[in-house]
Amino acid sequence: MSGPDRTTALLDAAVARIGGARRPGQEAMARAISEVLAEPAPLLVQAGTGTGKSLAYLVPVLAHAVEKGQRAVISTATLALQRQVLVHDVPLVADVVAERTGLRPQAAVLKGWQNYVCKHKLGGGYPADDEPGLFPADATTPDPQRTARAASTLGEQILRVREWAEETDTGDRDDLVPGVSERAWRQVSVSKLECLGTACPMLAECFPEAARQAAREADVVITNHAMLGIAAAGSPNVLPEHDVLVVDEAHELAERVTAQSTLELSATVVERTARLARRHGALGVDLEQAATVLRTRLETVPDGRLRDGLPAGLADAVTLVDAAAREALTALRGTGEAEAGGRLMARAAVLTLTEVTERLLSDRIAQRRDVLWCERGRTGLDAPRLHLAPLDVSAPIADHLLSGRAAVLTSATLALGGTFDAMARTLGATLLGRERGDDRTPDVPGAGRPTRPAPAAAAPASASASADGADADDGRPWRALDVGSPFDYRRQGILYIARHLPPPGRDGTSAQALEEVLGLVRAAGGATLGLFSSRRAAEEAADLLRSELDVPVLCQGDDQLPTLVRRFAEDEATCLMGTLSLWQGVDVPGPTCRLVLIDRIPFPRPDDPVRSARSEAAAAAGGNGFMAVAASHAALLLAQGAGRLVRTMSDRGVVAVLDPRLATARYGTFLTRSMPPMWQTTDGTLARDALRRLATGTSRPAGRTATA
Fold first, then answer.
1. Which of 315, 354, 469, 630 qualifies as a cystine partner to 310, CB 3.0-4.6 A?
2. Residue ranges of the chain with pLDDT lower than 70?
3. Which residue windows does the record flag with biased composition (Low complexity) (predicted)?
4. Which of 332, 356, 390 is the last residue of a domain?
5. How far is CA 599 from the centre of its chain?
6. Cα angle 667, 668, 674; round to 5
7. Co-location of 626 and 536 in the same domain
8. 29 and 100: one domain?
9. pLDDT digits (tens, 9 = 90+) for 291-303
């Protein structure tokens, strides 16, 4: 039996074990992965909601790992999904593989160092963090009662962690239920730079080291995109040696790598580092003076992108910080009288500072490889901070994550505008096998390279178009496959575009758009998820619905997001209005969500430093900067947002976009081709009639709105 055929047999056994039925898209995905494991190359797989992609990649990957002795790393977008894969999906597939092959795959979970409790720190081997955090930084006189309450709560949390640390086998923060605050956890964990390593007196009981040892012995390692970001940023050794990489929710990978590689510098950070250095063996005086100069210089820098790099005065201040930090670093190399843990904490902070200053003073900005900007927070009143982010992360992804191994990159949204090309460039797949240098043109989407739509191919039952990026006629080193979705989107959903509305402006939601929101929600009898471009827009819609309709209306900010989503799911009549946090990851199947409202096309802010720089780079290379960056960003979010509607075979409803540009602008077709293929209309009466029929058929009419 060939590899793909054997994979199909294993998949059937796994699906039967959970009482499911064969899904053609799931089978096509598993077979394609089996082929890539035999002939390593990057494979991009778009697998729509309901495909069952976890089993589709776990079956061939786990079987390959135990039979070929090739370790696999599987990365998820969140710690919660990481836990689900490890606790639920992997054991099921491991049982099937063991029954059919006689070899049972061993799995391990791997997270960042600070996700584990440090027993040495709990035992007093490190000083308490020098953190101002009990009252606002601009407060002149702290409130004694508030400070005492905060200290008492912090002490109680640390005591609970200390008791738990004696019982847990993992030391993993996610296993501590209920959890503790971020501040409390910082008091019981250390970073890799702060760890004493082999000099630690409690090395034999070290939880993060035990997790890494388990990963080095496992057949499959379950990790998360944050760890991939660390690896891509230049620390590939954070992951064990492996021959196979699977990235679930791969559309988020580039942003995670960008975030991991983004640095920050402020006078406050330098001052805090100076205090820590002084406490543990370095004078820190020069560093404090440098912080004062930096603060003065930063106050003169306006918010926004610094296209020409550091201004002269600011460059001098950063140079001063760099020199002072290196002197402190030298002083901290001695043994001194300070405890080893304290010296390591100070040394880690100073070392991090030198890495920031070194990159700020390098020629990466002049070479257009880094983007530099200054900001003062959301209110504009905070102390100014410098930020430095890479213009392009495709090269580090290609070099540190994809090169030399079989790689599967999967998500429900990888083909933007009907082609995988943009995502393949963003994820570094196009760079494999090419000669590159540091002076190369950034490989941003649309940077003057030809694209072509994914060619249609015969597809199984519910699978859609299939594409292969390794066609003999173009020599591409990557493959792509769209296995579609088991859902019949044209029968289950309507995409309504409110073409008659005025284009959205900068002055908030128009009166006409709010009236449209009211009419649609009234017709739906509630049961609405509102996805808005700003908190202000979400609150305006929520206030209107509360005043006009007799349905429960929740708004982001009323409570913690998981609580709001749970309340939304529990009551069919409830509406939930929110912003970007709700566009992805909200899974509320059934009649509770029969209307998804999107107020405008979610283009990035024009003043977004990184995206504006990437757009300029694409245009400079001969491409279309707007389509390469802004439109691709919007397409991805629209696909994710519209995907909140149909989550099961029985879901029915309407996605309503209140931005007429989706129907009238030239880029509208590119955006709608990125969304689930629902039946499309600009007829508001038709959309409202469909919603009324759905509301009438529910078991719980939404008060007076059911008869409106």
1. 315
2. 1-2, 128-152, 284, 334-339, 378-381, 434-475, 698-708
3. 445-469
4. 390
5. 23
6. 100
7. yes
8. yes
9. 999 999 999 999 9
